[in-house]
Specification:
Helix content is 43%, strand content 19%. It is of the alpha/beta class. It is globular. The protein folds into two domains: 2-224 and 402-415, 3-Layer(aba) Sandwich (Aldehyde Dehydrogenase, Chain A, domain 1), CATH 3.40.605; 231-377, Aldehyde Dehydrogenase, Chain A, domain 2 (3-Layer(aba) Sandwich), CATH 3.40.309.10.
Length: 422
């Protein structure tokens, strides 16, 4: 264990030293490193997929559930998508050095706020190997060093990806130590890492609720946490029902194992008898299990995969082909339900009533609020951020998909000509 701690300490110091150089690295060098990463992900596909296969086989043998297996698994198309996300990050404007505002004071002092990197980012995450690439690429472009600590279930995949990233960035001239990967899976290392405030400026946990809570409660440095995604879609009385079917189907079925997938469908009573059988038919063909309140159960026949909802089904992130359904009497009731059971992640209304749409946007307290669109769009890539380090349900200092600018802070720059304070 001591050797693992020594390794972590050494990598923390190396990352801190690299961060000072990264903060001033030319944009051209950072972009070259990112393009190298994208090309290497494709060129070294065999090496990466062989490593991932070992992880998937081990995960299946240990009894890992389907939702987590889906997050763990890589294939050629997913690698291509990862590479494209890295290219997108390379194409984005470099946030470092951006002047946020400037003013000239009456005494002649010129004051500016300039965007600067945070320093060293510590990432603790589970299952999803793409996080290794997403966080590394965003940290590089925003001038931050990164220390990666993935879960043991993805050790082979993450290790292979980290090697690819280190080789690609080194060839571009990125300082040694900019991307550090912790090979040891000792659980005690997480606790130790959370005490390294001298070398780590920000910790980002990505994983289950237990991991996020542990990191948030024990870290000695600021934490930027990705919260649980409990996502509602409310079908209003004026909704275009054809549109509502397509949106709810996409939000639940397109990829049910992720945090922005639909968990609960709220339907206004005036359209419930027309709408519910249609969406239930579509969902049933996709294998969705529907857990219904009494009124929804009364509308849907036993031909569908339906069951009575329990209290525990409201406010539950299913991460599977399961959805809770509730019939409501009004927009007020829908808003009250979301306020009680939502997690502040992504919420949607389907309506043709402008007033209802605007009220929903104003009153729902969530990172992302939609009108007539699927919650599946809550994603850094879909928002044009290239990738994301996570989706924050916090309010400080970032909210929703976290991209380049969320990995920076600012400093005040004051230029004078000999002024002294009277």
């Amino acid at each position: 264990m001591q050797s693992a701690i020594d390794e972590l300490e050494a990598k923390g110091k190396a990352a801190k030293a690299a961060s000072r150089k990264l903060a001033h690295l030319p944009t051209e060098v950072k972009n070259k490193a990112l393009i190298n990463i994208a090309e290497s992900l494709v060129a070294r596909e065999g090496e990466i997929l062989d490593a991932n296969r070992l992880d998937c086989e081990g995960a299946k043998a240990s009894g890992m559930g389907e939702a987590m297996l889906d997050r763990l698994m890589l294939n050629p198309s997913r690698l291509q998508a990862m590479a494209q996300d890295v290219r997108t990050v390379a194409s984005l404007s470099d946030p470092v050095g951006e002047i946020l505002d400037t003013r000239l004071l009456p005494n002649g002092l010129r004051i500016e706020r300039r965007r600067v990197p945070l320093g060293v980012i510590g990432a603790i995450y589970e299952s999803r190997p793409n996080v290794t690439v997403d966080i590394s690429s965003l940290c590089l472009k925003s001038g931050n060093a990164v220390i990666l600590r993935g879960g043991k279930e993805a050790l082979h995949s993450n290790s292979a990806l980290a090697r690819v990233i280190k080789d690609a960035t080194g060839e571009a001239g990125v300082p040694s130590g900019a991307v550090q990967f912790i090979e040891s899976t000792e659980r005690a290392l997480v606790s130790y890492m959370l005490k390294m405030r001298e070398n780590i400026d920000l910790i980002i946990p990505r994983g289950g609720e237990e991991l996020v809570r542990f990191v948030t409660e024990n870290a000695t440095m600021p934490v930027l946490a990705s919260g649980v995604g409990i996502c509602h879609t409310y079908v209003d009385r004026t909704a275009d029902l054809e549109k509502a079917v397509a949106i709810a189907f996409n939000a639940k079925v397109q990829r049910p194992t992720v945090c922005n997938a639909l968990d609960c469908l709220l339907v206004h009573r005036e359209v419930a008898e027309r709408y519910l059988p249609t969406i239930a038919r579509e969902w049933a063909q996709a294998g969705v299990e529907m857990r219904c309140d009494e009124r929804a159960l009364g509308i849907l026949s036993s031909n569908f995969k339906v069951a009575s909802a329990s209290e525990g089904d409201w406010g539950k992130e299913f991460l599977a082909l399961i959805a809770a359904i509730k019939v409501v009497d009004s927009l007020d009731e829908a808003l009250e339900h979301i306020e009680r059971y939502g997690s502040g992640h992504s919420e949607a209304i389907i309506t043709e009533d402008y007033t209802a749409a605007m009220r929903f946007l104003e009153e729902v307290d969530a990172a992302c609020v939609y009108v007539n669109a699927s919650t599946r769009f809550t994603d850094g890539g879909q928002f044009g951020l290239g990738a994301e380090v996570g989706i924050s349900t916090q309010k400080f200092h970032a909210r929703g998909p976290m991209g380049l600018k969320e990995l920076t802070t600012y400093k005040w720059v004051i230029m004078g000509s000999g002024q002294v304070r009277p």
